[in-house]
Amino acid sequence: MADERRGLHGAVASGDEAAVRLLLREQDVNARDEKGCTPLLLAECIKDEASYDSIVQILIENGADVNICHDTPLHSAVFYQKQHLVAALLRAGADVRRNNLLHIAAEKGCEGILGLLLADKRCTEDMINSRDASGRTPAFLAALHDHKACLKMLIARGADLSLADANEDTVMGAVFENMTRAVEFTREVLDSSVGLEKVNEKNRYYVDFRVLAPGKGARQMDVISSLLVAANDEEKTEVLQHPLIELYLTLKWSKVCYFFYLWIAAYVVFVLSLSVYVTLMAHNYVGIDGIMAASRWILIVSATCLLVHGILQCCLTHGNHFRKYEMWLNLACTSLSLIVAIVEDRARNGAQNIPNWVLHVSSIAILLSWTELMLLIGRLPTYGYYALMFSAVLQNVIRVLLAFLCLVVGFALSFSIQFSSCPEFADPWRALVKTTVMMMGEFEYGDLFADQSLGVERATSRVIFLMFIILTSIVLMNLMVGLAVSDIQILQTESHARKLEKQADFLGQLEKVLTSRRFKGRHVPQIVRKLLGRNYIETRYELETSTRFRRSKKLSSRLIDSLVGIAKSHRERNDCDG
Question: 469: how many CB neighbours lie within 10 A of its CB?
Fold first, then answer.
């Protein structure tokens, strides 16, 4: 019997089609050799492609089991990129759920084979997002090897771009790190999620959010959160302003904005109580012990709540929130406020004077708290635009000052020598501060040169002073003003993108907190669970172009028009292709 098996196996391995047909009349098509291989598996040894295809087809027609071994014939066909053979094996019932076939096709960039596998009814969403030994999904491998067409096919079938491998690298990270023209590709994928349907001779516009919120899980911000981590500032500015993402963030924001307003209210209480308490403490008003005590307790409670909220948020998000400067501002001002309240109360009860360092700490805390409040206002849809415009201008001014810092320091040291008799220039630090103030136009020329003669040594100071006026007050200051207002459109674009980024960051952090296990326990009231579940939105959203719809949904005409334009362009392109 072993000789007969070797005969059929040998005929298949040698590519002898006639011998295979003859031996199949006498031998089992699924017989195994001494290594456990069937004739269908040994067909891999055939070098001639035509003979290979013909013999495999003969074996399948004669009942060869396409799933008999771990390394199935379908696996070999996918690995060696034989598309027509893959189609034949799938028609014969080959199992697509084995051997990470989607991973192989995506890694090799086989669009046709990947399309056949995805079109099979047995290919589920769990299979599309399955992981290999390294934790990588088919979409990750497609992005890693820059196979754009394959990645688009996987995304259309529900691939999750937020899934990470064993090294915590997400699919979105692989897109922006390894793919060429990643921004253009991302915008094309987002454009494909906007569509137009004809219903009763009327246009019906819709958007599909599955690319941003794949699957049925409660975490709908993971894809955008991974985008914020993977993309650089320039890429985020372009991608975040895509109408699909902007609409998605607008809808999500409308669901959970009351959490943000509650946070704003709590922070306003904290800032006001800190301001009242520190002001009364610093000026030693008489007869205000009751107000002092009330503001102190409000300050302690509000600061403690905000501090605990920040720490819990960082713990629930695995410490990622500590990387943001706003979190450090929050921790700094709340911690310093608690220190001031505790030390001042002990000094007052001990009938001691308040230490000077407490006043310095309190001034820093109150400045940081109001700055943090401004940054929080920067996330509001209406007024946040101006706060972020301020931030954009501030960044430009800081860059210019850092670029010309050597010039300012040089003038400061020169003035500290030339005007050493003046108290404002008594030491280098005072000279630097005074020089910076003089850049704003406060020269005090009469005071500086009131008692100076017209000697050579005085002429030197006048020449340096004149150079300072020309180089800093005229050139440098006008340069900063010109950069700030030269291209207001760029500043508007950047500010709009930063506002969307702030909203996305808040929504992502809030979603991680709300979907944590602590909010799913039995001790949480049902009404609280329903309130927390309001942040979920449906993945398909239909648009209307009527004014009433825009007002009721609080959507801008610009946003709706952009989405309608994308849908119409897709329809026209499909009609031309058809």
Answer: 16
Please report, for the chain, how many H helices and E strands are present, in that order.
Answer: 29, 3
Tallying the residues shown for the chain, one arrives at 578
The enclosing H or E element of 252 equals helix 243-283
User: Sign of the CA dihedral 304, 307, 310, 313?
Assistant: negative
Point out which residues pair with 164 in neighbouring strands.
Answer: 170
**DSSP letter at 287?**
S
Comparing CA positions, the residue from 42, 132, 114 lying closest to residue 78 is 114
47: how many CB neighbours lie within 10 A of its CB?
A: 8
Q: For the segment 95-113, what is each residue's pLDDT rounded down to a tens digit?
A: 787 778 889 899 888 899 9
Q: Read off the pLDDT of residues 259-317 as tens digits, 9 standing for 90 and up.
A: 888 888 999 999 999 998 888 887 776 667 788 888 889 989 999 988 887 777 666 55
Residue 321 predicted with pLDDT over 90: no
Q: Where does 382-427 have alpha helices with state H?
A: 384-403, 405-418
> Residue 484: what residue type?
A
- Find how far residue 44's CA is from the centre of its chain: 46
Contacts of 167 (CB under 8 A, 6+ apart): 135
SS3 content of the chain, % helix, strand, coil (to 5): 70, 5, 30
CA distance 56 to 80: 14
* Strands in 315-461 per DSSP E: none
Residue 242, helix vs strand vs coil: coil
Encoding tokens for residue 361? 């700490």
Residue 144 is which amino acid? Answer: L
The contacts of residue 185 (CB under 8 Å, 6+ apart) are: 148, 151, 175, 179
Q: What's the CA gap between 456 and 453, in Å, rounded?
A: 9
Q: In terms of pLDDT, which residue wins out, 550 or 360?
A: 360
pTM: 0.72
